[in-house]
Design brief:
InterPro entries: DgcN-like, DgcN-like_C, DgcN-like_N, P-loop_NTPase. The protein has 344 residues and is an alpha/beta fold. It has two domains: 115 residues, NAD(P)-binding Rossmann-like Domain (Rossmann fold, 3-Layer(aba) Sandwich); 205 residues, Rossmann fold (3-Layer(aba) Sandwich), CATH 3.40.50.300. A six-stranded parallel beta sheet has the order 7-8-6-9-10-11, sandwiched between helices. The protein has a five-stranded parallel beta sheet with strand order 2-1-3-4-5, sandwiched between helices. α1 runs parallel beside α6, α3 runs parallel beside α4 and α7 crosses α8.
């Protein structure tokens, strides 16, 4: 486990999506976060106290988390310099970038001299096997998306919380750096060699016989030319009983690819169901989660109603409005019956 409390790193970022790892920790592990570090040219904030390295260490921070997504997952000179500054004042450093902290000799030497640790969150297990796709016991739900960074992790966490509130055993299975930092464990699926992706997910969510659910965090999109391979491997390895489609309305294009439009909801859902049937012919869609954080309340509710009419599935922003309708569909509970039970 990475020792907390944490100092969350924003650096020079000016893209709110690029700080999603720091934002996720601030949202779901806020009690473990003492503050945020950002340079003067960074216009973003997580609503935490802004601190210098020495201030954070004095306030009890034990690890600085480089919670940003840099271009290509690279450790640029500024990140290395800031990581060194954190080590200098006695903090460990954690990162989930594709370039590893342990490959920076300066950081390795500083950590060794000070008895500190470098945590590379994006390290997959070393002994993975290829997936087989054989039927296995247990209930599994996978979130899928129209695009990258549309709220799959937030939705999966919200659905996990909603199931537990019903008294159902439910476990969040993290597949990305942010989710792993929140959960404390998982498989960074985008760092797994392609042949082993489905096998990694079979290990992450193995057969279970307790009637509980594994809720598996989706990654990428079948429609994104850069990341569709990871999305497909997840679909096959998860062998999901249920899919939840995630979307952020109003995107002008696929993330990082100007000129390429995002796909429609119905098309996205059908393609994901088609791919999931390779390992579970009985897979079903149970709902749609939309990120309406850029919309006002009435507009968001109207949109959810339109999507429900279009797809015949419950639709909600699970962060703003809860996930009860999707849980009803997942557990095959009639909302009216639930309401009657609650009234007694």
């Amino acid at each position: 486990m990475i020792p907390g409390p944490f100092l969350l790193y924003l650096g020079h970022s000016d893209d709110s999506v690029a700080i999603k790892t720091s934002r996720g920790l601030a949202e779901f592990r806020r009690d473990d976060c003492v503050g945020e570090f950002r340079h003067d040219d960074c216009p973003l904030t997580l609503g935490l106290p802004r601190m210098r390295m020495a201030q954070a260490a004095a306030a009890g921070a034990r690890t600085m988390v480089l919670g940003i997504a840099s271009a290509g997952g690279r450790l640029g000179a500024d990140l290395v310099a800031d990581a060194a500054a954190a080590l200098e004042v006695g903090m460990n450093v954690a990162a989930g970038l594709h370039e590893r902290l342990r490959n920076e000799p300066r950081l390795v030497q500083m950590a060794a001299e000070r008895g500190l640790q470098l945590f590379d969150v994006r390290d997959p297990p070393a002994d993975l096997t290829v997936g087989k796709g054989y039927p296995r016991a247990g209930h599994r739900l996978l979130t899928v998306g129209t695009d990258c960074s549309v709220g799959k992790m937030y939705s999966t966490l919200a659905l996990t919380k909603a199931l537990r509130a019903r008294g159902v055993t439910a476990d969040f299975r993290a597949t990305g750096q942010t989710g792993i930092l929140i959960a404390g464990e998982g498989v960074p699926v985008d760092a797994v060699v392609a042949d082993f992706i489905s096998g990694a997910i079979e290990r992450l969510a193995p057969a279970r016989h307790d009637g509980g659910w594994d809720l598996i965090e989706g990654q990428g999109s079948l429609f994104h030319p850069s990341f569709a391979g990871v999305s497909l491997g997840l679909l096959h390895g998860a062998q999901p009983e249920a899919l939840v489609l995630c979307d952020e309305p109003g995107r002008a294009h696929m993330r990082g690819i100007p000129g390429r439009p995002t796909p429609g909801l119905a098309e996205t859902l059908e393609r994901n169901l088609e791919a999931a049937r390779v390992t579970n012919p009985d897979v079903r869609a149970v709902g749609v989660c939309v990120n309406t954080s850029r919309m006002d309340g009435p507009e968001a509710l109207r949109l959810c109603g339109q999507i429900e009419d279009e797809l015949g599935l419950p639709c909600t922003d699970p962060v703003a409005h809860g996930a009860e309708a999707i849980i009803d569909r997942l557990l095959c509970v009639e909302p009216s019956a639930l309401a009657t039970t609650a009234s007694h």
